[in-house]
UniProtKB/TrEMBL annotation:
This is Acyl-CoA reductase. Keywords: NADP. SUPFAM superfamilies: ALDH-like. It comes from Gelatiniphilus marinus. It comes from the Bacteria.
Length: 352
């Protein structure tokens, strides 16, 4: 199968997904194989929402819209242009996927297939409904993908390389278990925002998207703020208030109530507004409904700290702080060439 065939297949997959990426799911007349797949995928979205309380339809459709935006002919060509994919020796690549947000392992899945390899997928039980259905659609669009996609719930065997994502503890297990195989092993990371006190209300409103989307469960969600000494949080709390409806979600509300009770009983200082808390803390990993913050005096010293802690940080949200920053509101809208942990997946796949 030629590269252009693979690209064309993923463009068609993006067109299929586009029917499900809005608040109102709407069937289109010009999408291939809709008679077979449209109602089925609509049902899979419903199953995913019922199976995992964090996977609301709003968050599922938001994730799908991200893939609609990514899977265009222009984006796919731009992504793959730097690589020579003409002489790939096909191997079987295993992917162990996380399940914290909908389709979180989709980029690895696409990367393996579009580079010409076969894929063996072990999904998280938290996110098991959407991807197998999309994989089946892909096989219908391009027959040459048949026998190149395999899902398993069993122990992984007979593969040539692995991409595995998990917690810090499971990552250590992965490193030991897969030490004889070419691998990408990912562990816990969090994202940070560096504020300078000059942000506009619109900036902070956009930052709320980086904090609250997917209930803060993604590694690209901002879980830590760095703020200048004597920073006034009033404007910040005012700007994020439009997300107050999030407390209506029972799972989120339960976490908010629990973490608030823990802080109060422990007599920790924190600020809260009825649906969200901020707490001064040196850690990067904050619990649900909470963001940690830390003061800084000198921007250059902060850059050195962030550089030293780079293996804990996924994204840096700021305006003018660093050359590789992400704009406010954009953490959950990565491009195809925005690789997790800054590890080039395609380059890895070309070397195995």
């Amino acid at each position: 199968m030629h590269l252009q065939q693979r690209i064309n297949a993923f463009v068609k997959l993006g067109e299929f997904i586009s029917q499900f990426s809005t608040k109102v799911i709407q069937k289109k007349d010009n999408v291939e194989h809709n008679a077979i797949f449209f109602d089925g995928f609509k049902h899979q979205i419903k199953l995913a929402e019922e199976h995992n309380g964090w996977f609301t339809q709003e968050n599922i459709t938001f994730a799908l819209q991200g893939w609609v935006d990514a899977l265009t002919l222009q984006n796919l060509k731009k992504w793959l242009q730097p690589y020579n994919l003409d002489a790939v020796n096909p191997k079987k690549v295993a992917i162990i996927m996380a399940g914290n947000i909908p389709l979180v392992g989709f980029h690895d899945f696409i990367s393996v297939l579009i580079s010409g390899h076969r894929v063996l997928v072990k999904q998280s039980s938290n996110d098991k409904h959407l991807l197998p259905f999309l994989a089946k659609y892909l096989e219908y669009v391009e027959n040459d993908f048949k026998n190149k996609i395999e899902f398993t719930e069993e122990k992984l065997t007979h593969f040539d390389a692995v991409i595995a994502t998990g917690s810090n503890n499971t990552a250590r297990y992965f490193e030991y278990y897969f030490k004889g195989k070419p691998s990408i092993i990912r562990n816990n990371r969090n994202s940070v925002a560096v504020l300078n006190g000059k942000e506009t209300k619109e900036d902070l409103q956009q930052l709320a998207e980086d904090i609250f989307r997917y209930y803060g469960l993604g590694c690209r969600n901002v879980s830590k703020l760095f703020v200048p000494k004597n920073y006034n949080f009033d404007t910040f709390f005012e700007a994020i208030y439009h997300w107050h409806h999030i407390i209506e979600k029972a799972k989120y509300a339960n976490n908010y109530d629990y973490n608030k009770a823990v802080y109060l009983m422990s007599e920790f200082d924190m600020l809260e507004n009825g649906f969200f808390m901020i707490k001064e803390d040196a850690s990067y990993t904050s619990p649900i409904a909470t963001v940690f913050y830390e003061y800084y005096d000198d921007a250059n010293q902060l850059k050195q700290k962030i550089k030293a802690d780079a293996n804990q940080i996924q994204c840096i949200v700021s305006n003018g702080f660093t050359s590789h920053e992400i704009a406010f509101g954009k953490t959950q809208k990565p491009e195809l060439w925005d690789y997790a942990d800054n590890v080039d997946t395609i380059a890895f796949l070309l070397e195995i």
